[in-house]
UniProtKB/TrEMBL annotation:
Limits of the G-protein coupled receptors family 1 profile domain: 46-285
Organism whose genome encodes this protein: Porites evermanni
Gene3D superfamilies per the UniProt record, alphabetical: Rhodopsin 7-helix transmembrane proteins (1.20.1070.10)
Transmembrane segments: 29-55, 67-90, 105-124, 145-165, 171-194, 235-255, 267-288
Membrane topology: Multi-pass membrane protein
Record-given protein name: G-protein coupled receptors family 1 profile domain-containing protein
Source superkingdom: Eukaryota
Lineage of producing organism: Eukaryota, Metazoa, Cnidaria, Anthozoa, Hexacorallia
InterPro entries named among the record's database cross-references: GPCR_Rhodpsn, GPCR_Rhodpsn_7TM
UniProt keyword terms in alphabetical order: Cell membrane, G-protein coupled receptor, Glycoprotein, Membrane, Receptor, Transducer, Transmembrane, Transmembrane helix
Subcellular location: Cell membrane
Length: 316
């Protein structure tokens, strides 16, 4: 009898532990889905407003660099409209079947991959605009910007689709993909910093020559150089936000690819942080670009005026 009671106690303890683990996992899933709901609405609303603002401003539509911003805004809009609802449905087990779950999850990750690649392209574009500030309009045309954006979409969507049947390969490619984007963006902004630093040293030497010896020194400077420098420094915020949002998912992907850890629900918050990037980007557009900020404010005011007019007509 003592032995049977001992076994019963152990079994009851193990059952309690399993129940505690399942309840904790359920709470993680619920919290994760609750966090994704407002992020999804922010992504849809914010990026839609930015797209409308760009389309209504002719000066913004004509700039090649705006092509990358439009591509990023469209991607982030789709992340909120398609990617996050699919992700929430997977977490709540509304989407069943191994292949369907992998395919839909791969689609969500593909959209985030396009967003990451476009942010990287923006950093490279800012480097080109700063380094070749005199010939940049001829170097980066609207057609080339469109081709580059289309190529990023193709590659970012194709890679996860090819690895949808092997999760380990998918995680390995995702880790390598994110690492390449990190390296390219880091190298671009390091080069931008060196160019800006060199330019400041030249200006300082010029000022000292004028003050001390009253001679003129030719400095390779222009309005394009100054504008490119300001835009490059502002878009550095994209890079900081990208590192913050994608670094946890990068760590998780590499750990799973090397079989150091298996699937753990707690790490799903890393995926939510990736989605956070799509919600933050519209605010960064408005902060970095005065024209986008002004046009977005006008769009919001027009929408508010129309709503008040409709409300007044209904009251009458």
């Amino acid at each position: 009898m003592l032995n049977y009671s001992f076994v019963d106690k152990n079994e009851s303890k193990s059952d309690n532990l399993k129940m505690d683990n399942s309840s904790s996992l359920e709470s993680v899933v619920v919290i994760n889905c609750i966090l994704n709901a407002p992020l999804m609405l922010t992504s849809i609303t914010g990026n839609a407003l930015v797209l409308v603002a760009i389309l209504r401003t002719p000066s913004l539509r004509s700039a090649p660099s705006t092509i990358f911003l439009c591509s990023l805004a469209i991607t982030d809009f789709l992340v909120g409209l398609v990617g996050q609802p699919v992700y929430i449905a997977i977490k709540l087990h509304y989407l069943t079947g191994g292949f369907i779950r992998k395919a839909t999850f791969s689609m969500s990750v593909s959209l985030c991959g396009v967003s990451l690649a476009t942010i990287t392209a923006i950093s490279v574009d800012r480097l080109l605009a700063l380094h070749y500030h005199m010939t940049y309009p001829n170097l980066m045309t609207t057609k080339r910007a469109l081709y580059a954006s289309a190529s990023l979409w193709f590659v970012s969507i194709l890679l996860p689709c090819l690895t949808v049947w092997k999760l380990r390969v998918f995680n390995l490619i995702a880790g390598v993909y994110i690492t390449i984007c990190f390296v390219l963006s880091s190298a671009s902004y390091i080069k931008i910093y060196l160019i800006v630093r060199h330019h400041q040293i030249q200006i300082h030497a010029h000022q000292q020559a004028v003050d001390n010896f009253n001679v003129s020194v030719n400095i390779p400077d222009s309005n394009n150089m100054i504008i490119s420098k300001k835009r490059a420094l502002k878009t550095f915020v994209y890079f900081i936000c990208m590192i913050f949002c994608y670094l946890p998912f990068l760590s998780y992907s590499l750990l799973r690819a090397t079989l150091v850890i298996g699937y753990e629900e707690n790490w799903s918050f890393a995926e939510t942080v990736v989605f956070l990037n799509s919600s933050v980007n519209p605010f960064l557009y408005c902060w970095c670009n005065r024209e986008i900020r002004t046009s977005t404010v006008k769009v919001v005011r027009k929408m508010m005026c129309k709503q008040t007019e409709v409300a007044s007509e209904l009251d009458v």
